[in-house]
Design goal:
607 residues, alpha+beta, Heat Shock Protein 90, Ribosomal Protein S5, domain 2, 4 domains, eight-stranded mixed β-sheet, five-stranded mixed β-sheet, 32% helix, 22% strand
Length: 607
Protein backbone atom coordinates (compact mmCIF):
# COMPACT_ATOMS: atom_id res chain seq x y z
CA UNK A 1 0.00 0.00 0.00
CA UNK A 2 1.43 3.37 -0.98
CA UNK A 3 1.73 6.26 1.46
CA UNK A 4 -1.19 8.70 1.39
CA UNK A 5 -0.08 11.34 3.93
CA UNK A 6 2.17 14.12 2.65
CA UNK A 7 3.17 17.65 3.58
CA UNK A 8 1.31 20.54 2.06
CA UNK A 9 3.20 23.00 -0.13
CA UNK A 10 3.97 26.25 1.70
CA UNK A 11 1.70 28.35 -0.53
CA UNK A 12 -1.28 26.05 0.17
CA UNK A 13 -0.58 25.86 3.91
CA UNK A 14 -0.46 29.66 3.99
CA UNK A 15 -3.81 29.90 2.19
CA UNK A 16 -5.41 27.54 4.71
CA UNK A 17 -3.95 29.54 7.59
CA UNK A 18 -5.19 32.72 5.94
CA UNK A 19 -8.73 31.35 6.05
CA UNK A 20 -8.64 31.54 9.85
CA UNK A 21 -7.34 35.11 10.00
CA UNK A 22 -8.44 36.80 6.75
CA UNK A 23 -12.13 36.22 6.24
CA UNK A 24 -13.03 39.50 4.53
CA UNK A 25 -11.52 42.96 3.91
CA UNK A 26 -12.36 44.07 7.45
CA UNK A 27 -10.05 41.31 8.77
CA UNK A 28 -7.15 42.95 6.91
CA UNK A 29 -8.17 46.37 8.28
CA UNK A 30 -8.13 45.06 11.85
CA UNK A 31 -4.69 43.47 11.57
CA UNK A 32 -3.04 46.42 9.83
CA UNK A 33 -4.49 49.02 12.21
CA UNK A 34 -3.41 47.02 15.26
CA UNK A 35 0.09 46.63 13.80
CA UNK A 36 0.28 50.39 13.28
CA UNK A 37 -0.68 50.98 16.91
CA UNK A 38 2.04 48.62 18.15
CA UNK A 39 4.53 50.45 15.94
CA UNK A 40 3.87 53.39 18.31
CA UNK A 41 2.28 55.50 15.59
CA UNK A 42 0.67 58.81 16.55
CA UNK A 43 -1.08 59.23 13.18
CA UNK A 44 -2.74 56.46 11.15
CA UNK A 45 -4.41 56.72 7.74
CA UNK A 46 -6.77 54.04 6.41
CA UNK A 47 -7.42 54.19 2.64
CA UNK A 48 -10.03 51.83 1.17
CA UNK A 49 -11.26 51.30 -2.38
CA UNK A 50 -14.29 49.25 -3.41
CA UNK A 51 -14.95 48.32 0.21
CA UNK A 52 -11.48 46.81 0.50
CA UNK A 53 -11.82 44.39 -2.39
CA UNK A 54 -9.55 46.49 -4.57
CA UNK A 55 -7.37 48.17 -1.92
CA UNK A 56 -6.82 48.33 1.82
CA UNK A 57 -3.92 50.61 2.69
CA UNK A 58 -2.69 51.68 6.11
CA UNK A 59 -0.09 54.44 6.42
CA UNK A 60 1.46 55.21 9.82
CA UNK A 61 4.25 57.32 11.26
CA UNK A 62 5.45 54.60 13.61
CA UNK A 63 8.96 53.29 14.21
CA UNK A 64 9.23 51.57 10.84
CA UNK A 65 11.10 48.32 10.11
CA UNK A 66 14.59 47.34 9.14
CA UNK A 67 15.22 45.56 5.85
CA UNK A 68 15.43 42.21 7.64
CA UNK A 69 12.21 42.74 9.63
CA UNK A 70 10.39 43.80 6.47
CA UNK A 71 11.26 40.47 4.89
CA UNK A 72 10.75 38.36 8.02
CA UNK A 73 7.24 39.65 8.78
CA UNK A 74 5.85 37.71 5.79
CA UNK A 75 7.20 34.38 7.04
CA UNK A 76 4.87 31.89 8.75
CA UNK A 77 4.97 31.90 12.56
CA UNK A 78 6.94 35.15 12.53
CA UNK A 79 6.16 37.40 15.50
CA UNK A 80 7.66 40.15 17.60
CA UNK A 81 5.96 39.44 20.91
CA UNK A 82 6.30 35.73 21.80
CA UNK A 83 9.61 34.10 22.68
CA UNK A 84 8.52 31.50 25.25
CA UNK A 85 5.40 29.66 26.44
CA UNK A 86 5.06 32.10 29.34
CA UNK A 87 4.81 34.98 26.89
CA UNK A 88 1.44 33.62 25.72
CA UNK A 89 0.02 34.69 29.08
CA UNK A 90 1.71 38.09 29.29
CA UNK A 91 0.53 39.63 26.01
CA UNK A 92 -0.36 43.32 26.20
CA UNK A 93 0.42 44.41 22.63
CA UNK A 94 -1.56 43.70 19.46
CA UNK A 95 1.46 42.34 17.57
CA UNK A 96 4.12 44.35 15.76
CA UNK A 97 3.93 42.97 12.21
CA UNK A 98 4.29 39.23 11.73
CA UNK A 99 1.65 36.52 12.36
CA UNK A 100 -1.15 37.91 10.18
CA UNK A 101 1.14 39.34 7.51
CA UNK A 102 1.95 35.85 6.15
CA UNK A 103 -1.77 35.11 5.91
CA UNK A 104 -2.52 38.39 4.15
CA UNK A 105 0.39 37.91 1.75
CA UNK A 106 -0.94 34.45 0.85
CA UNK A 107 -4.24 35.75 -0.55
CA UNK A 108 -3.40 39.22 -1.93
CA UNK A 109 -0.86 41.37 -3.69
CA UNK A 110 0.96 43.34 -1.00
CA UNK A 111 3.24 46.36 -1.30
CA UNK A 112 5.21 47.26 1.83
CA UNK A 113 7.15 50.53 2.18
CA UNK A 114 8.95 51.17 5.45
CA UNK A 115 11.79 53.16 6.99
CA UNK A 116 12.96 53.51 10.59
CA UNK A 117 13.27 57.07 11.91
CA UNK A 118 16.78 58.38 11.35
CA UNK A 119 17.60 55.93 8.53
CA UNK A 120 18.74 57.32 5.18
CA UNK A 121 16.78 54.89 3.00
CA UNK A 122 13.89 52.52 3.49
CA UNK A 123 12.68 49.27 1.96
CA UNK A 124 10.09 48.49 -0.70
CA UNK A 125 8.82 44.90 -0.80
CA UNK A 126 6.29 43.27 -3.19
CA UNK A 127 4.60 39.99 -2.22
CA UNK A 128 2.13 38.03 -4.35
CA UNK A 129 0.54 34.85 -3.09
CA UNK A 130 3.26 34.16 -0.47
CA UNK A 131 6.00 34.77 -3.04
CA UNK A 132 8.35 37.73 -2.66
CA UNK A 133 8.30 39.33 -6.11
CA UNK A 134 10.89 42.00 -5.32
CA UNK A 135 12.74 43.70 -2.48
CA UNK A 136 14.78 46.84 -2.95
CA UNK A 137 15.96 49.99 -1.17
CA UNK A 138 13.65 52.95 -1.67
CA UNK A 139 13.28 56.59 -0.74
CA UNK A 140 10.19 56.54 1.47
CA UNK A 141 8.84 58.46 4.46
CA UNK A 142 9.64 57.36 8.00
CA UNK A 143 7.08 54.84 9.27
CA UNK A 144 5.28 52.15 7.34
CA UNK A 145 2.81 51.96 4.45
CA UNK A 146 1.17 48.61 3.64
CA UNK A 147 -1.11 48.37 0.59
CA UNK A 148 -3.13 45.16 0.23
CA UNK A 149 -4.48 44.93 -3.33
CA UNK A 150 -6.96 42.59 -5.00
CA UNK A 151 -7.83 40.50 -1.97
CA UNK A 152 -8.42 36.80 -2.77
CA UNK A 153 -7.26 37.32 -6.37
CA UNK A 154 -5.77 33.81 -6.29
CA UNK A 155 -8.71 32.22 -4.41
CA UNK A 156 -11.73 33.04 -6.63
CA UNK A 157 -14.10 30.90 -4.57
CA UNK A 158 -13.36 32.98 -1.46
CA UNK A 159 -13.76 36.23 -3.39
CA UNK A 160 -17.17 35.11 -4.66
CA UNK A 161 -18.37 34.73 -1.07
CA UNK A 162 -17.76 38.39 -0.28
CA UNK A 163 -20.92 40.45 0.17
CA UNK A 164 -21.89 43.69 -1.53
CA UNK A 165 -19.66 46.74 -1.13
CA UNK A 166 -22.13 48.29 1.31
CA UNK A 167 -22.04 45.21 3.58
CA UNK A 168 -18.25 44.88 3.47
CA UNK A 169 -17.82 48.60 4.12
CA UNK A 170 -20.04 48.32 7.19
CA UNK A 171 -17.72 45.64 8.59
CA UNK A 172 -14.70 47.84 7.87
CA UNK A 173 -16.33 50.74 9.71
CA UNK A 174 -16.95 48.49 12.72
CA UNK A 175 -13.28 47.52 12.93
CA UNK A 176 -12.10 51.10 12.38
CA UNK A 177 -14.38 52.42 15.13
CA UNK A 178 -13.18 49.82 17.64
CA UNK A 179 -9.50 50.66 17.15
CA UNK A 180 -10.19 54.40 17.07
CA UNK A 181 -12.09 54.23 20.36
CA UNK A 182 -9.37 52.15 22.01
CA UNK A 183 -6.66 54.72 21.16
CA UNK A 184 -8.03 58.28 21.38
CA UNK A 185 -4.47 59.58 21.75
CA UNK A 186 -3.79 58.52 18.13
CA UNK A 187 -5.08 60.55 15.17
CA UNK A 188 -7.04 58.52 12.60
CA UNK A 189 -8.41 59.23 9.13
CA UNK A 190 -10.48 57.02 6.86
CA UNK A 191 -10.98 57.52 3.11
CA UNK A 192 -13.23 55.36 0.94
CA UNK A 193 -13.03 55.77 -2.83
CA UNK A 194 -11.21 59.09 -2.31
CA UNK A 195 -13.99 60.43 -0.03
CA UNK A 196 -13.12 61.29 3.57
CA UNK A 197 -15.37 59.37 5.99
CA UNK A 198 -13.59 60.12 9.27
CA UNK A 199 -10.99 62.64 10.42
CA UNK A 200 -10.35 62.08 14.10
CA UNK A 201 -7.68 64.25 15.77
CA UNK A 202 -5.84 62.95 18.82
CA UNK A 203 -7.59 63.86 22.05
CA UNK A 204 -9.52 62.59 25.06
CA UNK A 205 -11.82 59.57 25.07
CA UNK A 206 -14.91 61.78 25.35
CA UNK A 207 -13.83 63.73 22.25
CA UNK A 208 -13.17 60.52 20.36
CA UNK A 209 -16.65 59.16 21.21
CA UNK A 210 -18.25 62.35 19.90
CA UNK A 211 -16.04 62.25 16.81
CA UNK A 212 -17.03 58.66 16.03
CA UNK A 213 -20.75 58.72 16.87
CA UNK A 214 -21.78 62.36 16.48
CA UNK A 215 -22.33 65.55 18.45
CA UNK A 216 -25.59 64.30 19.99
CA UNK A 217 -23.50 62.05 22.26
CA UNK A 218 -22.15 65.08 24.15
CA UNK A 219 -25.24 65.38 26.32
CA UNK A 220 -25.80 61.69 27.00
CA UNK A 221 -22.40 60.60 28.35
CA UNK A 222 -21.71 60.00 32.04
CA UNK A 223 -18.15 59.19 33.15
CA UNK A 224 -17.55 55.86 34.85
CA UNK A 225 -14.48 54.99 36.92
CA UNK A 226 -13.57 52.39 39.55
CA UNK A 227 -10.12 51.48 40.82
CA UNK A 228 -9.39 48.28 42.78
CA UNK A 229 -6.22 46.26 43.46
CA UNK A 230 -7.66 43.50 41.27
CA UNK A 231 -8.57 45.60 38.22
CA UNK A 232 -9.74 49.04 37.11
CA UNK A 233 -12.74 50.19 35.07
CA UNK A 234 -12.95 53.51 33.23
CA UNK A 235 -14.95 54.98 30.39
CA UNK A 236 -18.40 56.40 29.71
CA UNK A 237 -21.96 55.14 29.97
CA UNK A 238 -25.13 56.60 28.46
CA UNK A 239 -27.99 58.20 30.33
CA UNK A 240 -31.12 56.00 30.37
CA UNK A 241 -33.31 58.45 28.45
CA UNK A 242 -31.00 58.09 25.44
CA UNK A 243 -31.17 54.27 25.35
CA UNK A 244 -31.86 52.70 21.96
CA UNK A 245 -33.63 49.60 20.73
CA UNK A 246 -30.36 48.16 19.48
CA UNK A 247 -27.14 47.13 21.20
CA UNK A 248 -25.11 48.99 18.57
CA UNK A 249 -22.94 51.37 20.60
CA UNK A 250 -21.75 49.01 23.35
CA UNK A 251 -18.02 48.44 23.68
CA UNK A 252 -15.86 46.53 26.15
CA UNK A 253 -12.09 46.77 25.97
CA UNK A 254 -9.83 44.57 28.09
CA UNK A 255 -6.26 45.92 28.18
CA UNK A 256 -7.27 48.07 25.20
CA UNK A 257 -8.38 45.06 23.13
CA UNK A 258 -12.04 45.01 21.99
CA UNK A 259 -13.99 42.00 23.30
CA UNK A 260 -17.52 40.66 23.16
CA UNK A 261 -18.99 39.46 26.45
CA UNK A 262 -22.63 38.72 27.15
CA UNK A 263 -21.64 38.06 30.76
CA UNK A 264 -20.25 41.57 31.31
CA UNK A 265 -23.10 43.11 29.32
CA UNK A 266 -25.45 41.51 31.85
CA UNK A 267 -23.47 43.21 34.65
CA UNK A 268 -24.09 46.59 33.01
CA UNK A 269 -27.77 45.92 32.27
CA UNK A 270 -28.55 44.88 35.85
CA UNK A 271 -26.99 48.14 37.07
CA UNK A 272 -29.57 49.97 34.91
CA UNK A 273 -32.43 47.89 36.29
CA UNK A 274 -35.58 49.95 36.68
CA UNK A 275 -34.16 52.89 34.72
CA UNK A 276 -34.53 51.77 31.10
CA UNK A 277 -37.61 51.66 28.88
CA UNK A 278 -38.68 48.17 27.83
CA UNK A 279 -36.37 46.43 25.31
CA UNK A 280 -33.89 49.32 25.37
CA UNK A 281 -30.11 49.18 25.56
CA UNK A 282 -27.78 51.88 26.89
CA UNK A 283 -24.64 53.15 25.25
CA UNK A 284 -21.32 52.38 26.92
CA UNK A 285 -17.59 52.40 26.19
CA UNK A 286 -15.82 50.71 29.10
CA UNK A 287 -12.14 49.87 29.50
CA UNK A 288 -11.03 47.13 31.87
CA UNK A 289 -7.39 47.05 32.86
CA UNK A 290 -6.28 43.77 34.44
CA UNK A 291 -3.06 41.79 34.75
CA UNK A 292 -2.55 39.67 31.57
CA UNK A 293 -1.93 36.60 33.75
CA UNK A 294 -5.55 36.77 34.94
CA UNK A 295 -7.03 36.38 31.45
CA UNK A 296 -6.72 34.05 28.45
CA UNK A 297 -7.07 35.83 25.11
CA UNK A 298 -6.38 32.81 22.93
CA UNK A 299 -9.82 31.19 23.10
CA UNK A 300 -10.96 32.63 19.75
CA UNK A 301 -9.06 33.18 16.46
CA UNK A 302 -9.96 36.88 16.36
CA UNK A 303 -9.35 37.31 20.12
CA UNK A 304 -12.75 39.01 20.57
CA UNK A 305 -13.67 36.49 23.28
CA UNK A 306 -11.55 35.98 26.36
CA UNK A 307 -11.65 34.03 29.62
CA UNK A 308 -11.20 35.60 33.04
CA UNK A 309 -9.50 33.76 35.88
CA UNK A 310 -12.14 35.12 38.31
CA UNK A 311 -15.26 35.99 36.34
CA UNK A 312 -17.44 36.71 39.39
CA UNK A 313 -15.11 39.39 40.72
CA UNK A 314 -14.87 41.08 37.31
CA UNK A 315 -18.68 40.99 37.02
CA UNK A 316 -19.13 42.53 40.49
CA UNK A 317 -16.62 45.36 39.89
CA UNK A 318 -18.13 46.28 36.49
CA UNK A 319 -21.62 46.24 37.99
CA UNK A 320 -20.52 48.40 40.93
CA UNK A 321 -18.71 50.87 38.66
CA UNK A 322 -21.78 51.45 36.48
CA UNK A 323 -24.10 51.65 39.50
CA UNK A 324 -21.78 54.19 41.13
CA UNK A 325 -21.67 56.30 37.95
CA UNK A 326 -25.46 56.34 37.70
CA UNK A 327 -25.70 57.48 41.31
CA UNK A 328 -22.91 60.06 41.05
CA UNK A 329 -24.59 61.73 38.07
CA UNK A 330 -28.01 61.68 39.80
CA UNK A 331 -29.36 59.29 37.21
CA UNK A 332 -30.38 56.50 39.58
CA UNK A 333 -32.88 57.11 42.40
CA UNK A 334 -31.13 57.68 45.72
CA UNK A 335 -32.22 57.81 49.35
CA UNK A 336 -32.09 61.04 51.34
CA UNK A 337 -30.07 60.01 54.38
CA UNK A 338 -30.53 63.43 56.02
CA UNK A 339 -34.15 62.72 56.92
CA UNK A 340 -35.60 60.04 59.19
CA UNK A 341 -37.90 57.95 57.03
CA UNK A 342 -39.61 56.54 60.14
CA UNK A 343 -41.05 59.94 61.02
CA UNK A 344 -41.59 61.40 57.57
CA UNK A 345 -44.97 63.17 57.30
CA UNK A 346 -47.48 61.21 55.27
CA UNK A 347 -49.60 62.89 52.62
CA UNK A 348 -53.36 62.62 52.98
CA UNK A 349 -55.22 60.38 50.55
CA UNK A 350 -58.10 62.11 48.81
CA UNK A 351 -60.95 59.69 48.31
CA UNK A 352 -63.96 60.14 45.97
CA UNK A 353 -66.67 62.34 47.46
CA UNK A 354 -68.79 60.58 50.00
CA UNK A 355 -66.00 58.56 51.66
CA UNK A 356 -67.02 59.47 55.26
CA UNK A 357 -65.55 56.24 56.63
CA UNK A 358 -61.97 57.59 56.39
CA UNK A 359 -60.08 60.20 58.37
CA UNK A 360 -60.51 63.81 57.41
CA UNK A 361 -57.93 65.50 55.22
CA UNK A 362 -54.72 66.30 57.06
CA UNK A 363 -54.77 63.26 59.35
CA UNK A 364 -53.32 59.78 58.98
CA UNK A 365 -55.52 57.87 56.53
CA UNK A 366 -56.27 54.27 55.89
CA UNK A 367 -56.16 52.56 59.29
CA UNK A 368 -59.15 53.92 61.18
CA UNK A 369 -62.10 51.54 61.20
CA UNK A 370 -65.42 53.24 60.40
CA UNK A 371 -67.62 53.70 63.46
CA UNK A 372 -70.36 51.83 61.65
CA UNK A 373 -70.07 49.96 58.37
CA UNK A 374 -73.46 51.30 57.32
CA UNK A 375 -72.08 54.83 57.31
CA UNK A 376 -69.44 54.04 54.75
CA UNK A 377 -70.84 55.38 51.51
CA UNK A 378 -70.01 54.16 48.02
CA UNK A 379 -71.15 57.34 46.38
CA UNK A 380 -68.83 58.30 43.57
CA UNK A 381 -67.72 54.79 42.72
CA UNK A 382 -70.81 54.07 40.64
CA UNK A 383 -69.51 56.19 37.76
CA UNK A 384 -66.68 53.68 37.23
CA UNK A 385 -69.21 51.10 36.11
CA UNK A 386 -71.29 53.24 33.75
CA UNK A 387 -69.34 52.25 30.61
CA UNK A 388 -69.94 48.60 31.39
CA UNK A 389 -73.65 49.10 31.78
CA UNK A 390 -73.86 50.73 28.36
CA UNK A 391 -71.74 48.06 26.68
CA UNK A 392 -73.46 45.56 24.45
CA UNK A 393 -70.87 42.91 25.31
CA UNK A 394 -73.07 41.70 28.17
CA UNK A 395 -76.04 41.26 25.86
CA UNK A 396 -75.89 37.56 25.03
CA UNK A 397 -78.86 37.84 22.70
CA UNK A 398 -76.96 40.13 20.33
CA UNK A 399 -76.42 38.68 16.85
CA UNK A 400 -72.72 38.41 15.96
CA UNK A 401 -70.93 37.48 12.78
CA UNK A 402 -67.56 36.00 11.97
CA UNK A 403 -64.82 38.04 10.27
CA UNK A 404 -62.98 36.94 7.19
CA UNK A 405 -60.12 34.53 7.57
CA UNK A 406 -61.65 32.64 10.50
CA UNK A 407 -61.13 29.31 8.75
CA UNK A 408 -57.50 29.53 9.74
CA UNK A 409 -58.40 29.18 13.43
CA UNK A 410 -60.25 26.62 15.51
CA UNK A 411 -63.86 26.80 16.74
CA UNK A 412 -62.77 28.93 19.69
CA UNK A 413 -62.70 31.91 17.32
CA UNK A 414 -65.88 31.02 15.52
CA UNK A 415 -67.85 34.06 16.58
CA UNK A 416 -65.93 37.25 17.35
CA UNK A 417 -67.77 40.53 17.25
CA UNK A 418 -67.34 42.69 14.15
CA UNK A 419 -68.70 45.98 12.92
CA UNK A 420 -72.23 44.94 13.80
CA UNK A 421 -71.43 44.76 17.54
CA UNK A 422 -69.45 46.49 20.25
CA UNK A 423 -65.72 46.02 20.86
CA UNK A 424 -64.45 47.37 24.15
CA UNK A 425 -61.08 49.09 24.52
CA UNK A 426 -59.29 48.68 27.86
CA UNK A 427 -56.66 51.22 28.98
CA UNK A 428 -56.02 52.09 25.31
CA UNK A 429 -53.98 48.87 25.06
CA UNK A 430 -56.31 45.90 24.75
CA UNK A 431 -59.52 45.08 22.89
CA UNK A 432 -62.20 42.83 24.40
CA UNK A 433 -64.28 40.89 21.92
CA UNK A 434 -67.02 38.38 22.74
CA UNK A 435 -66.53 34.98 21.08
CA UNK A 436 -68.45 31.71 21.11
CA UNK A 437 -66.46 30.17 23.95
CA UNK A 438 -65.84 33.26 26.08
CA UNK A 439 -63.91 36.52 25.63
CA UNK A 440 -61.06 37.27 23.24
CA UNK A 441 -58.43 39.77 24.45
CA UNK A 442 -56.40 41.38 21.65
CA UNK A 443 -53.12 43.18 22.20
CA UNK A 444 -53.75 46.29 20.13
CA UNK A 445 -50.12 47.08 19.28
CA UNK A 446 -49.18 43.47 18.55
CA UNK A 447 -52.19 43.13 16.22
CA UNK A 448 -51.21 46.30 14.36
CA UNK A 449 -47.66 44.98 14.00
CA UNK A 450 -48.87 41.72 12.41
CA UNK A 451 -51.19 43.59 10.01
CA UNK A 452 -48.48 46.06 8.95
CA UNK A 453 -45.86 43.34 8.53
CA UNK A 454 -47.97 41.34 6.09
CA UNK A 455 -48.86 44.52 4.24
CA UNK A 456 -45.20 45.55 3.81
CA UNK A 457 -44.10 42.05 2.84
CA UNK A 458 -46.73 42.08 0.11
CA UNK A 459 -45.48 45.49 -1.09
CA UNK A 460 -41.88 44.27 -1.21
CA UNK A 461 -42.80 41.10 -3.09
CA UNK A 462 -45.13 42.73 -5.62
CA UNK A 463 -43.05 45.94 -5.82
CA UNK A 464 -46.29 47.90 -5.92
CA UNK A 465 -45.89 50.93 -3.68
CA UNK A 466 -47.20 54.45 -3.40
CA UNK A 467 -45.29 57.34 -1.88
CA UNK A 468 -46.23 60.77 -0.60
CA UNK A 469 -43.83 63.58 -1.47
CA UNK A 470 -42.71 65.75 1.43
CA UNK A 471 -43.60 69.41 1.17
CA UNK A 472 -40.19 70.22 2.66
CA UNK A 473 -37.57 67.53 1.92
CA UNK A 474 -35.63 66.54 5.03
CA UNK A 475 -31.82 66.69 5.17
CA UNK A 476 -30.69 63.84 7.43
CA UNK A 477 -27.14 63.36 8.62
CA UNK A 478 -26.33 59.77 9.60
CA UNK A 479 -23.40 58.08 11.25
CA UNK A 480 -20.96 56.52 8.75
CA UNK A 481 -22.16 53.00 9.64
CA UNK A 482 -25.85 53.96 9.25
CA UNK A 483 -25.15 55.79 5.99
CA UNK A 484 -23.50 52.65 4.63
CA UNK A 485 -26.51 50.58 5.73
CA UNK A 486 -29.03 52.93 4.09
CA UNK A 487 -27.10 52.80 0.82
CA UNK A 488 -26.99 49.02 1.04
CA UNK A 489 -30.80 48.92 1.48
CA UNK A 490 -31.60 51.63 -1.07
CA UNK A 491 -33.65 49.32 -3.33
CA UNK A 492 -35.66 47.88 -0.41
CA UNK A 493 -36.35 51.35 1.01
CA UNK A 494 -37.67 52.47 -2.36
CA UNK A 495 -39.92 49.40 -2.59
CA UNK A 496 -41.48 50.43 0.73
CA UNK A 497 -42.11 53.99 -0.49
CA UNK A 498 -39.07 55.94 0.76
CA UNK A 499 -37.34 58.12 -1.80
CA UNK A 500 -34.03 59.81 -1.01
CA UNK A 501 -30.87 61.02 -2.71
CA UNK A 502 -27.26 61.35 -1.62
CA UNK A 503 -26.22 64.81 -0.47
CA UNK A 504 -22.55 63.92 -0.03
CA UNK A 505 -20.65 62.34 2.80
CA UNK A 506 -23.03 60.70 5.27
CA UNK A 507 -25.97 62.98 4.49
CA UNK A 508 -29.11 62.13 2.50
CA UNK A 509 -32.12 64.17 1.40
CA UNK A 510 -35.43 62.42 2.12
CA UNK A 511 -37.96 63.41 -0.55
CA UNK A 512 -40.86 61.01 0.04
CA UNK A 513 -42.17 58.48 2.55
CA UNK A 514 -44.73 55.63 2.28
CA UNK A 515 -48.22 56.94 1.51
CA UNK A 516 -49.83 55.47 4.64
CA UNK A 517 -47.28 56.91 7.06
CA UNK A 518 -48.17 60.13 8.84
CA UNK A 519 -45.86 62.93 7.67
CA UNK A 520 -44.26 63.98 10.94
CA UNK A 521 -40.76 63.50 12.38
CA UNK A 522 -39.53 61.77 9.21
CA UNK A 523 -35.92 61.97 10.44
CA UNK A 524 -36.84 60.21 13.69
CA UNK A 525 -38.80 57.56 11.78
CA UNK A 526 -35.86 56.75 9.49
CA UNK A 527 -33.36 56.65 12.36
CA UNK A 528 -35.61 54.36 14.43
CA UNK A 529 -36.20 52.14 11.42
CA UNK A 530 -32.42 51.75 10.97
CA UNK A 531 -32.03 50.99 14.70
CA UNK A 532 -34.70 48.30 14.59
CA UNK A 533 -33.19 46.79 11.45
CA UNK A 534 -29.78 46.57 13.14
CA UNK A 535 -31.38 45.06 16.24
CA UNK A 536 -33.00 42.35 14.09
CA UNK A 537 -29.69 41.84 12.32
CA UNK A 538 -27.94 41.14 15.61
CA UNK A 539 -30.48 38.61 16.89
CA UNK A 540 -32.11 37.03 13.83
CA UNK A 541 -31.04 35.55 10.52
CA UNK A 542 -33.40 37.20 8.04
CA UNK A 543 -33.08 38.32 4.47
CA UNK A 544 -33.02 42.07 3.91
CA UNK A 545 -36.65 42.39 2.80
CA UNK A 546 -38.16 40.46 5.70
CA UNK A 547 -35.93 42.28 8.18
CA UNK A 548 -36.97 45.66 6.81
CA UNK A 549 -40.67 44.71 6.78
CA UNK A 550 -40.42 43.57 10.41
CA UNK A 551 -38.57 46.71 11.43
CA UNK A 552 -41.08 48.98 9.68
CA UNK A 553 -44.08 47.17 11.18
CA UNK A 554 -42.70 47.23 14.73
CA UNK A 555 -41.77 50.90 14.62
CA UNK A 556 -45.02 52.14 13.10
CA UNK A 557 -47.20 49.96 15.34
CA UNK A 558 -45.59 51.52 18.41
CA UNK A 559 -46.43 55.01 17.14
CA UNK A 560 -50.08 54.52 16.20
CA UNK A 561 -52.66 56.35 18.30
CA UNK A 562 -53.76 54.20 21.27
CA UNK A 563 -57.25 55.73 21.45
CA UNK A 564 -59.53 54.20 18.81
CA UNK A 565 -63.10 54.76 17.69
CA UNK A 566 -65.60 51.88 17.51
CA UNK A 567 -65.17 51.73 13.74
CA UNK A 568 -61.36 51.62 14.03
CA UNK A 569 -61.46 48.89 16.66
CA UNK A 570 -63.76 46.66 14.64
CA UNK A 571 -61.75 47.33 11.49
CA UNK A 572 -58.58 46.25 13.34
CA UNK A 573 -60.22 42.96 14.35
CA UNK A 574 -61.33 42.30 10.77
CA UNK A 575 -57.87 43.08 9.36
CA UNK A 576 -56.17 40.90 11.96
CA UNK A 577 -58.23 37.86 11.02
CA UNK A 578 -57.60 38.59 7.38
CA UNK A 579 -53.89 37.93 8.00
CA UNK A 580 -52.21 34.64 7.15
CA UNK A 581 -50.99 34.24 10.74
CA UNK A 582 -53.35 36.33 12.89
CA UNK A 583 -52.45 35.01 16.34
CA UNK A 584 -48.73 35.93 16.46
CA UNK A 585 -46.50 38.90 15.62
CA UNK A 586 -43.56 38.27 13.25
CA UNK A 587 -41.36 37.99 16.35
CA UNK A 588 -43.54 35.30 17.92
CA UNK A 589 -45.43 37.40 20.48
CA UNK A 590 -49.12 36.55 20.93
CA UNK A 591 -51.56 39.00 19.41
CA UNK A 592 -54.55 37.55 21.25
CA UNK A 593 -55.62 35.21 24.02
CA UNK A 594 -58.95 33.53 24.72
CA UNK A 595 -60.52 33.46 28.18
CA UNK A 596 -63.10 30.71 28.10
CA UNK A 597 -66.34 30.84 30.06
CA UNK A 598 -65.09 28.09 32.36
CA UNK A 599 -62.07 30.21 33.30
CA UNK A 600 -64.32 33.20 33.98
CA UNK A 601 -66.57 31.09 36.22
CA UNK A 602 -63.49 29.91 38.14
CA UNK A 603 -62.52 33.49 38.94
CA UNK A 604 -65.77 34.00 40.84
CA UNK A 605 -65.99 30.56 42.44
CA UNK A 606 -62.61 30.82 44.19
CA UNK A 607 -62.90 32.33 47.63
Amino acid sequence: MSDIIHLLPDYLANQIAAGEVVQRPSSVVKELLENAIDARATSVQLIVKEAGKQLVQVVDNGIGMSETDARMCFERHATSKIKSTEDLFRIRTMGFRGEAMASIGAVAQVELKTKPHGAETGTRLLVEGSTVASQEPAAVSAGTSIAVKNLFYNVPARRNFLKTNAVEMRHILDEFQRVALAYPEVAFTLHHNDVEIFSLPAGKLSQRIVGVFGNNYKEQMASCEEETPFMSVRGYIGKPEFAKKTRGEQFFFVNNRFIKSGYLNHAVMTAYEGLLPKDSHPFYVLFIDIEPERIDINVHPTKTEIKFEDEKTVYAIVHAAVKKSLGTHNIAPSLDFQSDVNFAPLQPIRMPHGGEGFEKEGTFPGFKVPASPKKASVNGWEQLYEPLRDSKIAQEEERITSPSGMGLLDDTFAAPMTTSSKTLQVHHKYLLVQVKSGVMIIDQQAAQERILYEKYMASLQKKMVTSQALLFPQTIELSPADAALVKELRAEFQELGFQFEDFGGNTIILNAIPADVQAANEKELLEELIEQYKNNLATLKLDKRENLARAMAKRLASKLQPRMSDLEMNSLVDKLFGCEVPNYTPGGQKTLVIMELGQLHELFLKG
